[in-house]
Structure formats: C-alpha cells, structure tokens
Amino acid sequence: MEGVKTSLPRPAWAPGIAAAAAATVVAYAVAHWVPALNPSIVAVILGALVTNLHLHRPVLHAGTRLAGKRLLRCAVVLLGLQLSLPELAHLGGRGLAVVAVTVAVTFTGTQVLARWLGVSPARGLLVATGFSICGASAVAAMEPVAGGDEEDTGVAVALVTLCGTLAIAVLPALRGPLGLNVADFGSWVGASVHDVGQTVATAQRVPGALTTAVVVKLTRVVLLAPLVASVGLAVRRRQRVLVPAGGVGDLAEEPHAKRRMPPPVPLFVAGFLLAIAVTSTGLLSPRVLADAKSVQSVLLVAALFGLGTGIHLPALFRTGRRSLVLGVASWALVAAIAYAGVRVAAL
C-alpha cells in the first residue's frame, strides 16, 4: 500500500517572501555595522542588485510582488499607531500652516517639474507624494490611484530613499550657515525630510531637536490620507468623463472599466486613519506601541526589498536622468519651502 502524502503544497509566494525576510536580516545587519546607512536604503539596493544580477528568478516573483504591495500597505497602517491627535495639537496654527503650505507647494511643484522634464504623470505623481509627505509609505499609499507600473513605484521609492538618506548628512551641515537654532532646525527637518526614520536619524545629530522634528514630521504624515483621497476622487471623476452614461467613450468598450476605478480612499489608508484614532484614545500601552513600531519598521524594510526588485537599471538609465533631476529638484524644493516657512513662522 502506497504511503499517503500529508504535505501541503507550498504557496507560490513562499520563496519570494523568504527572500524578502533574508534581505531584511541582511539590511539590518549592514545598518548595524555601518550606522550611517539606513536599513531602508540597504533593502532597496539589495532588491535592485538581485534583479540586475539576474538572480530574481520567476519562482520569487509572486512573493516579492506580495512584499512590495501588501507588506508595504500593512506598514502604512501601523504607521498610524505612531500618531495621536493630542500630540499633533501642540504644533499650533502657524505650525500647521507651514506644514500644509510645504506639502501643497512640493506636491504641486514636483508634478509641474515632471511635466516640464517629460517624466510620466504616474511617476511624477508618485515622486511628488513621496517627497511631500513621508517617503516610501506615501508612495505605497498613492500607488493604487496613480495608474503607474512597478518600475514607476520602484523609481519613486529609490529617489525618496536616496535623497532622504543624503539629508541625514546634508541638513545638519547646513544648520550653521543657515543660522538655525535647535528648535528651528528640528522644525526644518520635520517639514522637509521624507521618511520618519530618516527624520529621526537627521534630528538626532543635533541634541534637543528630535522632539520638535518628530511632531512636525508626523503632522505631515496625517495629511497623507486626505491627499490620497483627493487624488482618488479626481481620478474617479476623470474616468466617469471617459465612460459617459450612454456608453460612448474611450473606456466604454471595456465592460469592467467602471469596476476598476480606484476607490476614493484605499482600504489601508482608512486603516491608517483608524490606527491614529485608536492611538489617540490612549488605550494602548507604551509597550504595545513600541512593539508595533518595531513591526512596522521590519515590514517596511521587507517591502522595500520587494520594490527594489522592480528597479531595472537598463530601463532606469534610459529615462533615469530625467527622474533623477526630478527627485533632486523636489528635494531642494521641499527643503527651501520648509526653511522659508520656519523662518517666517518662527516655529
């Protein structure tokens, strides 16, 4: 009598997720050995190396794609647990105005620059979102409504990760020449640096600047949900114009076009808002919040490896010069607007 096989079939995503987990361990190890490096940028580099050294085998694709999308969205939800409304209220009206103006000008200006440089609208939108709000997490939140491809997402993540990492060294060096005191420097960092982790790393280089930087930074993060919702609604309106009631239009021949319209607020962005609400109640203990922050960091690094595997250098070199110019220009824009706002408002 033949033996009965009891093993379950291996999920298609398992090899890719295992690769993302291994890359996460390596990224944290490298960051531990070289403190100047952030695990996020190490993960993106590892992902790009795997793809461009032809190590990204088809068996890995399902898992790395899952990491780059689902894990990143889970990280966005958990990011909400680092925010609470009472903490944000301490910023005051002038501080909120500076943050809002910085986000609005950077978001709009980057897309104008993208059109001028000939960068695709989807990539320009993703780069604008990442630089104006919170780096890779913001890119992930906007991705469902941007209409781009994996390369657009990967390039946007690579740009915000690279520029945000450079900010860790550049901004503290500019504090003296720009005449910023500790509080002003913290506000400038919080209003201009992209990722939360990069904000912390930059502000920690000037003693006393961290608290202000984090409060200002997290206020920017709160604007992620309304920004994504407004873009989502605009996309839905534009698609309704293309699919008029009479069934005539560019999309009318697709029977499921209406069904594929992106929701005004992606589900994970709603989860992000819910997480903020839960934190604001004060029901979660500091230990739970600390553990959630650690999990969020790990998920983000694993997801960035997945996104990094979508960066194909030959394709990037064909269009990368314009994208790189866009990224550097957006970084300079957000830094300049934030600096002017801090000076005018005297935060």
TrEMBL record:
Q: Which family does it belong to?
A: Belongs to the UPF0324 family.
The organism of origin for this protein? Streptomyces montanisoli
Q: Which UniProt keywords apply?
A: Cell membrane, Membrane, Transmembrane, Transmembrane helix
State any GO CC term.
Answer: plasma membrane
Annotated membrane-spanning segments are 12-34, 95-117, 124-142, 154-174, 265-285, 297-317, 324-342
- Keyword Methyltransferase (UniProt): no
Tell me which domain of life the UniProt entry assigns to the organism this sequence originates from.
Bacteria
What is this protein's name? Sulfate exporter family transporter
Localization of this protein: Cell membrane
Transmembrane helix is among the record's keywords: yes
Topology in the membrane? Multi-pass membrane protein
